[in-house]
Amino acid sequence: MRISAQIIYNLFAPSYCEKRLFFAYHKVKALEPGPFEQLIYKLGLRHEENYRRSLGQYADASAGNLKERRAITQKYITEKVPIIYQGVLYENLTINNRLITVVGIPDFLLYEEGRYKIRDCKLAKQVDEKRHQEAIAQIKIYGLLLEKMTGQKVQKMEVVLGDNRLLDITEVKVMDPEEILPRVINLIEKENPPYSPVGWSKCMGCGYRPICWEVAVKSNDVALVYGVDQELACFLREQGITKIADLLDNYDDTSLAEVNRPWGEKIQKVGKKAQRILLQAQAMQEKRSILIKKINLPDSNNYVMFDLEGIPPYLDDLEKIYLWGIQVFGEKESPYLPALAPIEEEGDYQGWKKFLQNSQKIFEDYGDIPFLHWAPYEKTKIKLYLRRYGDIEGVAERVLKNLVDLCGLVKEALVLAEPSYSLKVVEKIAGFKRTQEEYGGNWAIAKYIEAVETEDRRIRKSIINKILKYNQEDLEATWGVFQWFKKEMASAPLTR
Ligand code: SF4
Questions:
Q1: CB within 6 Å of ligand 1 — which residues?
Q2: Which of 73, 335, 371, 391 satisfies CB 3.0 to 4.6 Å to 396 for a cystine?
Q3: Ligand 1 centroid to residue 470 C-alpha, Å
Q4: Global pTM?
């Protein structure tokens, strides 16, 4: 049996999942990587290449088959070559009483003070006990292999982070090979895939999503219930509660609230969440929404729909909003008013300024009208930009005062028969249809970076137009959901 240190990634990324590791080892076919996954891959390669160039001369061990590469790596090590690129380390290790060949290909081996150290490039800007454990596990396995190969303790294990900072992980106290390798072998040697509950955010970026969700939906898996977290799903399964109906048959608000299930390293009661979980289960079982509270919606003849597109901090130097989209809907509709951060120095500030100008114009034309947005992202980012650049004539503060989180209101009033309250899910219930086949926050990020990097103005314009269309349709979808929500509240009977 042979495993590569690289396989550990499947256990941790894009989310922790033991089933993904099993699937990957057994070569179960996954979805082709989408634009976002391709972007991450491309940026990773570029980061490594830039760093390699900065090192000057090095010995290249990247060509040939594994055996040849291992032989050349061994030769370079014996000769004490100062920098070895993509050397192959492989050793037979006894793991779980079996001889397993473990292969590792660190980006760089550097000879310093009589010993080799390992240096690996990672796109992440934070790697520690909690974040990007897969990177630590992988590099520590390289360390173990190098020790076996050279008979010497590794001088140091380092990560070149996405912002080029050098991080020493030699003393990091997690993900030791003695712990992680037996765990990995145990999982991949199972006859069948291990159980791992599905979860909306856990599975959305995973290539095995169609397989797992089809099985979960067909079997009415209790893990589909919104509010049933991974630990609770595993606990319920151990009690024989696998289907949504089992949950409803075996628990009421009080008994579910009393359930003690693992929560990280602690044990925690389900507590107050129990009532909502059972309502969610009921809605899914009966395939209908349940109105639990009639709430007063902000009353206005016109409403601003508001949606942002941003780049997370690990993909850029700055956590950046590159598109601030607003449009008034209602009696007197406005045109779509996007504030797109220009691709230039100070573009980030220019985008913010333009958004405030657009908002100012709306206040002048309509007065203080509600700015409807979906989930807390928009509020958080306005606060971030207020700290970063300050306000202009109090407009940002005024926008903040007029913000209304429509997602929060929907959750307060309605229990949907869905595993998620993301806009893309709720808009479908509201009957909204998009015109673009490809869309989504991650898709837009990948496209935006493609637009930033192309020199071809025509291509850039065409990509930006697609992103604008996507953002505009987010606004239309929010408005569609608002209209549907008002009707639901007016017509559905209250159940509690
Ligand atoms: S789809 Fe979800 S459950 Fe299936 S392998 Fe991926 S993360 Fe795991």
A1: 15, 17, 19-20, 23, 196, 198, 202-203, 206, 208-209, 212
A2: 391
A3: 27
A4: 0.89
